[in-house]
Amino acid sequence: IDVLILGMGDDGHTASLFPNSPNLSEALDLQGERRCLPMLAPSVPHQRLTLTRRLLASARSPILSVSGQAKLDTLRTALAGDDLAEMPVRAFLNPSLEIYWCP
């Protein structure tokens, strides 16, 4: 992946990696062999597919785009903690990530 542009939900999800959802630990495993997994969103009755952290983390230029005060507050909360299951976006908060915020 050359460029990866992630968004973030108010609950700290990103790339259909939802907090405490089934398959989340497997999807976030950097040693996992799968590249894609089904995930359940809490607000819809059907599954989504997501790329795994191992594949997403291989991006040469990772970017997080967030907008609005609520998501800025969510980002601050994510930056202050380390529980990936609680806020999966934390898996991507590292020095190589460029973060863009728009009010």
TrEMBL record:
The lineage of its organism: Bacteria, Pseudomonadati, Pseudomonadota, Gammaproteobacteria, Pseudomonadales. It comes from Pseudomonas syringae pv. pisi str. 1704B. Residues 1-101 form the Glucosamine/galactosamine-6-phosphate isomerase domain. This is 6-phosphogluconolactonase. Pfam families: Glucosamine_iso. GO terms for biological process: carbohydrate metabolic process. InterPro entries: 6PGL, Glc/Gal-6P_isomerase, NagB/RpiA_transferase-like. It comes from the Bacteria.
